[in-house]
Write a structure and sequence with these properties.
The complex is a heterodimer of chains A (292) and B (337). Chain A has 292 residues and is mainly alpha-helical. Chain A has one domain. Chain A contains eleven helices and three strands, in the order H-H-H-H-E-E-H-H-H-H-H-H-H-E. In chain A, helix 1 crosses helix 9, helix 2 packs antiparallel against helix 3 and helix 5 crosses helix 6. Chain A is globular. In chain B, strands 2-3 form a two-stranded antiparallel sheet. Chain B is globular and about 55 Å long. The longest helix of chain B has 27 residues. Classes of the chains: A mainly alpha (292), B mainly alpha (337).
Chain lengths: 292, 337
């Protein structure tokens, strides 16, 4: 029983990473209706920017805030320059665009900061949390930040004019335009916010997985899986999905014989597909009815 | 819950391509064919090998094109079917001692079965969900191939070495050239088969499903059957491509069939033009040669150069090689007048 509790706790700790990433994925999916394959690389780039600032002597929280602002602006710039012209293109063209962006960001980061692994500081410390060996204060802090972010997003979307306008632009673009919402800028704003949330995720994850240009590969896959599991239309679902994937992955690795580290990912993905076959819109997603 | 349901008239994921626009005219086909037959006589063995690569990867892109451009289903899992085909051929050749040519139909049948079965659960998924499911298949495949359970047959992490076949009947051509012509004949056969498939009743059913699934089922098309069938056919062709790849590279190992391969095939399809079968060969050329060109322009930034080139293609010719071909055709038409 103790092994079980410990594994669940450890799963929640890794789940927080996935939840953070999934939240960023859902944000951009809400705004543009696509999964952004370059999301992880954008987050990695933001993390490197904050690392660079700290190397230049900026204190952690200063670098944190500056990086958020830069990522926000960067996200908007990428949308305006590269993806606004593709808004009317077929989905597959957009996906190819994301893959191109992925290659560019990854390669440029490798050139500027090279591929050696770097230490990344944590603001929460890394001593055991409440005497537990499995969750450090950093991981507890990470869970806290994820939950806080979720609440802030909920408040933003539910109770501000801007949030309402963004939701309107995402769900019914034509009608939103008719009531005077600038839908094109709402999409850009969605990119900016997704990029900033991705930056937070990156800065929280970096102390755990270490900083290097390929650090996001695995995390993004789990982030996608978590977002799809929870339902792509629901930020809460994304966070719940993230924790579920983390816990399940750990339990499968511990209890199913012969799974080990290599098969963790396939097993987690298989579970998600099973869930999707039963509930195609994800756990908390809204079903979409199609018209002929 | 019902109050929160969204009703949308969703644009189809894949643009509708008219059937006639899916192929090349007879004259153009013959010119391309003549070029493919004559070219290897004048070039070095390494280039012949690259041309072989061009053909079998072209086949794999063609298979994805039938699935996505034909039936409108999206797949990031083609590398898994490719791996099954490659391993089937390699195992039959090395462990059973079968002739290389005979292993290909078997690879096709086995992959068809896998694709058809995988199509069953995939029926309930569409769009990003289907992409995730196929993606899961692609990430799982190398791990499954590495399992100790299959190690006796697959050679585990080390993989299997395949012997290169000699030209039969003492023909006076080298191994590379023989393999090239062998691949060329199979590629042409499958290409003609695919064109005819898309022109047949089944092909029209695929396209009806692609354009509007609900309307298609209202017209009496068995949507479930044809969607799984499209997966099966696509997997079978990918399997043949995998088998040819194994024979040409003379080596199969789990790490050659990662998600990267699936992404490359996907890019090949987009660059070649979704739903335009001849574009598959252009797409295949893009994924083989452009990374090399990018490396040539800048070693450290090869990924960035590749990405920029890809963006250029998307911006300048969003419909890929199909668009280029159409523009060329129009210009020729004007010249004749």
């Amino acid at each position: 029983m103790e092994l079980f509790t410990n594994q669940v706790l450890a799963g929640i700790a890794t789940g927080a990473i996935y939840a953070c990433m999934a939240l960023a994925v859902v944000m951009i999916y809400q705004a543009i209706d696509h999964l952004n394959f370059a999301q992880g690389e954008m987050a990695m780039f933001s993390t490197f920017i904050s690392w660079q600032m700290m190397q230049w002597g900026v204190p952690y929280w200063g670098a944190f805030v500056l990086t958020l602002a830069l990522s926000f602006a960067g996200g908007i710039a990428i949308e305006r320059l590269l993806f606004k012209p593709l808004a009317k293109a077929p989905i597959l063209t957009n996906v190819a665009g994301f893959i191109a962006l992925f290659a560019i960001v990854n390669s440029v980061a490798g050139l500027i900061w090279d591929f050696t692994i770097k230490q990344y500081p944590t603001p929460f410390g890394s001593s055991p949390f409440l005497g537990s060996q499995l969750i450090s204060t950093h991981q507890a802090g990470m869970i806290g930040v994820t939950v806080l972010l979720l609440i802030l997003l909920f408040l933003f979307f539910q109770y501000t004019r801007m949030g309402l306008a963004m939701r309107a632009a995402a769900s019914l673009p034509e009608s939103a335009r008719l009531v005077g919402i600038n839908t094109s800028w709402m999409i850009a704003l969605g990119w900016g916010m997704a990029s900033a949330i991705g930056a937070i995720a990156g800065m929280l994850i970096a102390p755990v997985v270490f900083l290097e240009p390929n650090m996001m590969g695995g995390v993004l896959i789990y982030g996608f899986a978590a977002a799809v599991l929870g339902g792509l239309s629901s930020p809460l679902g994304a966070v719940v999905g993230g924790f579920l994937v983390g816990v399940f992955e750990n339990l499968a690795g511990t209890y199913i014989p012969g799974v080990g580290n290599e098969l963790k990912l396939p097993i987690a993905l298989a579970l998600i597909i099973t869930v999707l076959v039963v509930k195609p819109a994800g756990l908390l997603g809204r079903p979409i009815v199609k018209r002929v | 819950m019902s109050a929160a349901e969204e009703v949308v008239t969703e644009a189809p994921a894949v643009e509708a391509v008219p059937k006639r626009a899916m192929t090349l005219g007879l004259g153009t086909s013959l010119v391309v064919l003549a070029a493919l037959v004559i070219a290897p006589i004048f070039v070095k063995n390494f280039i012949v090998f690259q041309m072989t690569q061009l053909l079998y990867l072209g086949l794999a892109v063609l298979a994805l094109n039938i699935l996505t451009g034909g039936s409108g289903q999206f797949s990031l899992g083609q590398s898994a079917f490719y791996a099954i085909g490659a391993y089937t051929s390699a195992i039959l050749m090395e462990h059973v001692g079968m002739n290389y040519a005979l292993t290909l139909p078997i690879a096709a049948v086995i992959c068809f079965a896998f694709g058809f079965l995988f199509g069953q659960p995939a029926l309930r998924l569409s769009g990003v969900y289907l992409a995730l499911a196929t993606f899961a298949l692609a990430t799982a495949m190398p791990q499954i191939l590495k399992l100790g359970f299959f190690e006796h047959w697959t050679g585990g992490v080390q993989g299997l070495v395949v012997t290169k076949p000699d030209a039969p009947f003492d023909l006076p051509i080298g191994q590379d050239k023989w393999l090239y012509y062998f691949t060329l004949v199979i590629t042409i056969g499958i290409y003609i088969g695919s064109v005819n498939l898309l022109r047949s009743r089944s092909g029209r059913a695929f396209m009806a499903i692609r354009d509007n699934e609900i309307a298609a089922s209202a017209m009496g098309i068995n949507v479930a059957l044809y969607k799984t069938l499209a997966f099966g056919v696509s997997a079978a062709i990918t399997g043949v491509a995998g088998g040819l790849g194994a024979i040409a590279v003379q080596f199969v190992a789990p790490d050659s069939f990662t998600i990267t391969l699936a992404i490359q095939l996907f890019l090949g399809m987009v660059v070649g033009g979704v739903g335009w079968l001849p574009g598959s060969i252009v797409g295949s050329a893009f994924i083989i040669f452009v990374p090399n060109i990018a490396e040539g322009i800048s070693k450290g930034l090869s990924g960035a150069v590749f990405g920029v080139l890809l963006f250029l293609v998307i911006f300048l010719v969003p419909h890929g090689a199909r668009q280029v071909a159409m523009i060329a055709q129009q210009m020729l038409g004007k010249l004749r007048k």
